[in-house]
Q: What sequence folds into this?
């Protein structure tokens, strides 16, 4: 994974964490998988590259949400569980074409 691809996501993730500094349970943020690992999980499943990343929280659970640019020029929204790395949502046109086959 190229550092130029990970650095923007890392900066976005860190800024999101800074906004959440009032979180009463900072140990939960320590449970997040590293953002580089999350990007690698998406890259293993979909061709393309990350163009945006953020950490969102729903129902007291953290998620990574990525915008993923496919080789066909489509943008997918990919959401991973921030603690397990499991895929929660993939939305957008061109999912089938961008899918990396096993």
A:
């Amino acid at each position: 994974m190229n550092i130029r691809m990970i650095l923007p996501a890392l900066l976005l993730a860190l800024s999101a964490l800074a906004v959440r500094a009032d979180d009463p349970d900072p140990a939960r943020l320590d449970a997040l998988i590293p953002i580089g690992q999350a990007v690698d999980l998406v890259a293993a499943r979909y061709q393309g590259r990350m163009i945006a990343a953020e950490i969102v929280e729903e129902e007291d659970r953290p998620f990574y949400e990525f915008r993923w640019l496919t080789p066909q020029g489509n943008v997918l929204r990919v959401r991973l569980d921030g603690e397990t790395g499991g895929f929660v949502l993939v939305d957008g046109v061109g999912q089938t074409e961008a899918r990396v086959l096993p």
